[in-house]
Amino acid sequence: MQRTGLYYPYVHFRDAAWIKAAALYLPEMARVVPDGFRVADPDHVRVLRDELGFVQDIDPALAVEAASGHLLRLVAEHGEELRNRFGVTVRQDVVDAEPAPPGARTPAGSHGHRSGPPSERPLAGLYPGEMSPALRQALSATGLAGRRVRSSFSHGEPGVWLGMDPALAWVYKCALTAELAADTAFLPVTDQEAAHTAADPWDTERMAAVLLEGAPARAGTGDLTARIGVLSVRCVLPAGLDGVPAEKIVALRKKYEPEFLAYTDTIDRTAADLRDALAGIRSPQALDTYVRQAVHREFEVALVSLRKAMNGAGLQTVTTSVSTTFDTPTSAALLSGLIGTVGGTVAGSAAGMVAGVGATAVGILGQARSRRDDVLAASPVSFLLRVENGLNPRTAVRRIGRALRRGAGAGV
Q1: Alpha-carbon distance 377 to 242, whole Å?
Q2: Which residue has the higher pLDDT, 257 or 216?
Q3: Kind and range of the H or E run holding 124
Q4: What's CA 202's distance to the chain center, in Å?
Q5: Rounded CA gap, 64 and 260, in Å?
Q6: Is residue 366 exposed (0-12), middle (13-18) or buried (19+ Cβ within 10 Å)?
């Protein structure tokens, strides 16, 4: 089954490279957007959302009662202890931080990290629609939250935010995500290193252990699909992915949809096999080791084999032929001029040179096309080769060779 990602613990994606990479291994990405909340997406997210339909907003109302119930019970059982550690004061009237695990540095606006007495800590904000009325009332009554006047992250929203300690907000957001994932079969994913914990259930006991006993939020195996996906696609991604236009991601996904679906099916199958085999393992280091071994076996090795098969289909021969042709002085001068040419001019000029390169190269390309299609169709990692060819920068000779292959109808 193709898995839709469920982004947490925030509404707005924090890492441009991460969301672009996610669009190369997940069919869609849902994010929690309470009723009435106004999003403010940057251009690359808008392109993925509007042109690919990759980003989907989901109201958390379905999971609010269950998640709120867990925290309500914790407040009823440990209200005094929670207030001593995570209470807020009347002097705090600004939401200026974001949810963060206990003890972690808090992503904040004008304030620093979470330390010092409660009155000096920055507060994180939750939108009212993320909590039940009973929980909002209980948190306010016990001094664990207060209605804020303004928020540094509100994007013009009126002062309806509920402000609380970042650790308390983080634990609740993980619980809300876990409940929503259980109700939707979506896959919790995050660009925050410390937050890979929402895949397993969050109940009152787990909240108490993390908030009051200092227990680490244990690593589970529920997010194996995302781990495998991001590791496999890293095999072919350029270093500066944050600078790659989102339009290129959209074009790859649309043009090679069947290969993308075959690739994501392989991710799901690999994750399912690992999940069964590693169900009893709770060591993060051991889990990472097994995941990396699986990615190497199922994707990296397969990709190397696919490259060799493609070379065997004649593509490497054509690249060599093009390079040899440009060894003559006249061709070298022409190549020098083409290096300074951009966009369609390069492709047009190169395509016009097919006759000059010679009928031999075109003939090789024509014969290679059917073999190429057979090789790609047989490989579950062919989409990774498309990504590698589509996103990585090329030398001038390789760009011209690609234009020639397109002219002969055998472009990869």
Answers
A1: 30
A2: 257
A3: strand 123-126
A4: 23
A5: 34
A6: middle
Determine the Cα–Cα distance for residues 10 and 41; give it in Å rounded to an integer: 13
Instruction: Write out the DSSP string of 263-285.
Output: HHHHHHHHHHHHHHHTTT---HH
pLDDT of residue 346 exceeding 50: no
Contact assessment for residue 18 and residue 200, using Cβ atoms and an 8 Å cutoff: no
Which strands make up the sheet holding 150-151, listed edge to edge?
146-147, 162-164, 123-126, 94-97, 150-151
Mean pLDDT over the full length of the chain: 75
Q: What is the pLDDT of residue 359?
A: 39
CB atoms within 10 A of CB 261: 13
List b or e across 171-200, with b for residues whose CB sees 16 or more CB atoms inside 10 angstroms: bbbbbbbbbbbeeeebbbbbbbeebbbbbb
- Greater model confidence, 96 or 291: 291
Backbone angles phi, psi at 318, to 5 degrees: -65, -40
Alpha-carbon distances, residue 255 vs 267, 280, 320, 361 (angstroms): 20, 41, 27, 26
Q: Indicate the range of 53-57, 93-97, 341-345, 381-385 predicted with least confidence.
A: 341-345
Nearest to 226 by CA among 261, 268, 263: 268
How many residues are there in the chain?
Answer: 412
CA proximity to 143, closest of 115, 169, 118:
118
